[in-house]
Amino acid sequence: MQSLEAELGDARQLAVDDLADAIESIGFECTRCGACCKGDDEDDHTATVFPDEVRDLKESDSYDGDYDWRDVARPMPYGLSAGDDGLEGETFEWALQTDGCGDCTFYEEDDSGTGACAAHDDRPLICRTYPFSVALAGTSQPMGEAVDEAGMVRAHECEGLGRDISRDDAEELARALKERAVRELEEAIAVRDEYEPADRGPGEIVVHDSEGAKRVDGTPLEE
Question: Residue spans with biased composition (Basic and acidic residues) (predicted)?
């Protein structure tokens, strides 16, 4: 298996035209069904978000509201265990916050069932690139197995797959997909390099990201 640094080198060498060709061959048009923004009967919606993306969403002017870190992001649930007062333990990275139904906190739906994102202009890269991912170790894959692939591009379950997509839209999506692959690998390397076992108290959650160990409110653990 290649090192993360080698995978990062491969990600930086990805050709946008090749990614766009793959996306165009698979085809995609968002139908605004909302499936990628909602949880299901078993799991809450889980989408990885970078620390700087959390800050951008906190400060976004694209929606009304006064958001703090915990309104935008929650600890990635993987690795946490149930304690007397809820989840506890150490985990890596952040997920977009969810509402009481397990849907993304920014997801909205009109009376006809058409979905929309309240923070659409500032949505994270993982949302901008769904339902696609790049087949490189160290990059995030959406929930579920790939249902189609072309070259380095994987397509995950979505009712919009197989629809016509313009070359301009395919290239825009390809640029975002490459940026996401690079960012995910840079984040993974930084998390690895910054990681130190945390000295946490009972019932406490510690999140390790590229900036170090943090509390659930996004503040550094050492403060």
Answer: 193-217
Cβ neighbours of residue 219 closer than 8 Å, sequence gap 6 or more: none
Contact status, residue 140 vs residue 184, Cβ threshold 8 Å: yes
DSSP string for 162-205: TS---HHHHHHHHHHHHHHHHHHHHHHHHHHHH-------TT-E
Residue 212, beta-bridge partner list: 209
Q: Where are the beta strands (DSSP E) in 15-106?
A: 48-49, 73-75, 81-83, 86-92, 94-96
Query: Tens digit of pLDDT per residue, the chain (223 long)?
Result: 789 999 999 999 999 999 999 999 999 999 999 999 998 878 889 999 999 999 999 988 766 667 899 999 999 998 899 888 788 999 999 999 999 899 999 999 888 878 889 999 999 999 999 999 999 888 887 766 788 999 999 999 999 999 999 999 999 999 999 999 999 999 999 999 999 988 888 889 999 999 999 999 999 988 6
Strands, sheet with 73-75, edge to edge from the N-terminal-most edge strand: 48-49, 94-96, 73-75
The reply to whether omega before 197 is within 30° of 0 (cis) is no
Question: Contact at 8 Å (CB) between 65 and 105?
Answer: no
Q: 149 phi and psi, to 5 degrees?
A: -155, 155
SS3 27: coil
Name the maximum alpha-carbon separation found in the chain.
Answer: 53
CA dihedral (41, 92, 4, 155) in degrees, to 10, reads 20
